[in-house]
What does this fold into?
Amino acid sequence: MKEQTCFFTGHRVVPRAEEVRIRENTYALCVSLVEKMNIQTFCCGGALGFDTIAAQIVLRLKESYPFVQLRMILPCKGQEKRWGAKDQQIYRAILDAADTVEYVSEHYSAYCMHMRNRRMVDLSCCGIAFLRSAIGGTAYTVQYAHEKDVKMYSVDRVPEKDI
It folds into this structure.
């Protein structure tokens, strides 16, 4: 149900010096959305960086809110095959723990990331973004969300009173 679904979008590189704060803010946003907006499903795209952090946070969130679901919406099968061994291991653990895993394409194409991002927005009433650049996939996804009247929250500030 769209009114109970939130998606994540963010950059593949998360500055190491900011990772703890970004994790804490993302967790706080998720808790607020669960408690104040009855969000029950979180969609995650499975990329390195912020997507991995977000998926791990949802899995942690499930410990306190067992009804919460992690829905992995992935661009294509095998997206992780060029990643390092440690990242592949983390990715597989997330997929194993996810409630659902969906691929928008069987094989990589120039558009599969774009299709994945649009699908997550289309399924959601709100999104959480780690956005630092006005160009690229994350910026496009946030813009698309605004066009679709999907409320966006930033991990760079936790708008407690706005939720």
